[in-house]
Design goal:
The chain is α/β, with parallel strands linked by helices. It contains 19 helices and nine strands. It folds into three domains: about 80 residues, no CATH class; about 180 residues, Rossmann fold; about 90 residues. It is about 50% helix and about 10% strand. The strands form three sheets. The chain has a five-stranded parallel β-sheet, sandwiched between helices. Strand 1, helix 6 and strand 2 form a beta-alpha-beta unit. Helix 6 crosses helix 8 and helix 18 packs across helix 19. It is extended.
Length: about 400
């Protein structure tokens, strides 16, 4: 059903405090409809004139009819008067949220309990929390890493209150995530970047992961250019340097590494308002290489998160989650026991990464076992699949150790 323009305009006849944007749109609609289509539009002029419109010899009568209509729908107000009108006042109900925030779950509880409404004013910014609900949930659901979750919570609450902003500048946001491979450092860094862009701490949701090869060139003078280009691409977002200890070594730092680290150190200060750099790696190696290469780096990374090693129970939970996420299942619900992971824990030094490799090995051995059998038994893991997959995992690990490049050899 088509709505008449005049019926729309009649709704505004007695309306007060109309907003300028809305008023401007109405004026444009009237002008456009009259000048472009209104000459022969009965929805605009009314049914009494619908059959009386001849060619252009009725223009004078038509304009007179429009003026008569216009005089009964006049909105006589200047632009200055319109802009001086007070904005629509919303009477807000004040609600005090008194709760201790000790975990990410506490923030999620606030989101579930308190809606984000225009007529309610809270003592904390509930809207910001609603904006990052998905990231908070994702981080909270990650297995283990309780210390890191608390550290991220401290940083988030500090930043959301703008306590890091001083009179002329802001404090460093640069962060260290220390821990062994496979503990979720990259995933945590991505979540941090997404959260901080949504709450306004970062200007955009840009996340770039780099390693040594992305920053260091093979010729003198080009490393600074290459490093600066990467930094410029990340302005407003997050630059994540994985295995940052590979940028230097414990003894003599080569000239290319020094050029890279000096360029990075300068940008950490010059762009601290518009850039968040997150570095990851083993805590001891970072201290003995990266931070040792330039003493100015240490003070620029004021936030330090330490990833805990996964327990055998947590690794079992990670493995089960990966199985289910890939659409597989266990033939018997309780076939996999904690003792299986407890006895083999020392073999899984790369934690989550090793769980991915273990699952791949288990699936390969499963494929051998079910070849030619009914589809009912496929993608259903047994304890035999686990044991045979583990043997394949061990074989692959031995091959990797034999072919590993000695530490410190990068070029």
């Amino acid at each position: 059903m088509t709505t008449k323009l005049i019926d729309i305009l009649d709704k505004y006849r007695d309306k007060q405090n109309i907003k300028y944007k809305e008023f401007s749109v109405l004026l444009n609609a009237i002008e456009h409809d009259y000048l472009e289509t209104g000459l022969f539009n009965d929805y605009f002029l009314g049914k009494n004139l619908a059959n009386d419109l001849g060619p252009f010899d009725n223009i004078a009568m038509l304009k007179n009819s429009y003026n008569i209509w216009k005089s009964t729908h006049e909105f006589d107000m200047s632009l200055n008067e319109l802009l001086s009108l007070p904005s629509e006042v919303i009477n807000k109900t004040k609600v005090q949220i008194d709760t201790e925030i000790n975990t990410l779950s506490d923030l999620l509880d606030i989101i579930e309990k308190y809606e984000c409404k225009a007529d309610i004013e809270y003592n904390i910014d509930v809207k910001l929390l609603h904006n990052i609900k998905s990231e908070l949930t994702q981080l909270n659901n990650m297995i283990g890493m309780e210390n890191v979750k608390k550290s991220v919570l401290d940083q988030l609450i500090y930043f959301m209150q703008d306590l890091h902003i001083n009179k002329k500048t802001s404090e460093y946001k640069h962060t260290v995530i220390a821990g062994p491979p496979g503990t979720g450092k990259t995933e945590v860094a991505k979540i941090i970047g997404a959260m901080y862009s949504k709450v306004g701490i970062l200007k955009k949701n840009h996340f770039k992961k780099v390693t040594r090869s992305d920053l260091i060139a093979g010729y003198l003078g080009q490393t600074a250019i290459k490093t600066r280009k990467v930094i410029d691409e990340c302005i407003g977002g997050v630059l994540f340097i994985d295995e940052a200890y590979s940028l230097a070594n414990e003894t003599d730092i080569d000239i290319f590494s020094k050029e890279c680290i000096d360029t990075l150190c300068e940008a950490l200060s010059d762009q601290k308002d518009n850039l968040m750099v997150i570095i990851a790696g083993y805590e001891t190696e970072l201290q003995n290489t990266f931070f040792k290469a330039n003493r100015g780096l240490d003070s620029r990374f004021m936030w330090r998160f330490v990833m805990d090693d996964y327990t055998y129970k947590e690794m079992m939970a990670i493995f089960k989650k990966k199985v289910l996420d890939e659409g597989w299942e266990f033939l018997e619900e309780n076939a996999l026991k904690e003792i299986w992971f407890r006895e083999k824990k020392d073999e899984f030094k790369n934690f989550g990464r090793d769980m991915e490799q273990l699952l791949s090995c288990v699936k390969i051995k499963h494929g051998r076992r079910v070849y030619g059998k009914s589809s009912d038994v496929k993608k259903k893991i047994t304890i035999d699949d686990m044991n045979n997959g583990y043997l394949l995992f061990q074989q692959n690990q031995k091959k990797e150790k034999k072919s590993a490049v000695p530490y410190g050899v990068y070029i």
